[in-house]
Design brief:
The complex is a heterodimer of chains A (165) and B (118).
Chain A (H helix, E strand, L loop, with lengths): L4 H33 L6 H16 L4 E3 L10 H5 L7 E9 L11 H7 E4 L14 E12 L4 E12 L4
Parallel strand pairs in A: 1-4
Antiparallel strand pairs in A: 2-3, 2-5, 4-5
Chain B lengths: L1 H31 L2 H19 L5 E5 L9 E6 L3 E6 L2 E2 L4 E2 L6 E5 L3 E6 L1
Antiparallel strand pairs in B: 1-7, 2-3, 3-4, 3-5, 6-7
Classes of the chains: A alpha+beta (165), B alpha+beta (118).
Amino acid sequence: MIYSKKAQSGEAILMIFRLTLLMFIAFSIYFISGLNLDYHLDTKDVEANILGNLIFDCVSQEDKIVIEELPSKNNEISSYCKINGTEKTYTSINITKKEEEIFTTLENPQYKESIYLYNLGKIDFKATKKYKPGHSKIEREIDIVTEEKTISGIIKIEVIIENEI
Amino acid sequence: MEKRGSSLQQVTVHIILVALILALLVFAVLGRSNSGDVKRQVIEKQLALLIESGKPGTILEINKQNAHGLTLIEEIKIDENKIYVKIESSENKKGYPFFSKYRVEIKELESKFQVTIA
């Protein structure tokens, strides 16, 4: 028995179809296995904590802070502390009087502003990467040295480090 | 007889193509699941954490070979606050960023890499 030309071309089309189907299945397996085998070790929260502590050590000397010496803008903190490689990091520092801390719970923005001894504002950052950014908040009691006297205060440092992926 | 020969030829070509696709799939999945990528991530991130929390005068030594004497780390580079590690042909071309207050230098010795924080 000899295959007719029509039958041969039909067989060839069927073979192309089978191979396309097989390739589709193979790509699907590769894609699904890729999703499961994608391994990401996230250390950004730890890094944010290390950076927060570095900034705290930099702005305070033996648990004392001289506010007049601190930088006036968020992006000046890294250069003030001489930390390199902080392009993808965002920092905010707030210092409030300790005895008036209770009033931060009052929803009066005007009053809230008045208790800030030092305020570098909120971090303006929107996460765009696949993995969430590293985040750390440090809150400590500290002595604040002013011209007249030394008062007790609370320092809050918030650090966000953008993930590289 | 002619039909049998033609049919056999078709089946052989078919089997070869299927085997080729499956082999490519197996190699691609194996390449994806290669532990080199995980080891590279572990080394570069551990190194970044150690540098970030390191004090001046700290010297970190990283062996090139693993416990079985096989060469694991092929290359470690530090450039513009980024760590580049090459393990088992797995390499992150973008590098892993780190921050530090201090100068960080890396030196390649015979059997290890020496990272100095100064």
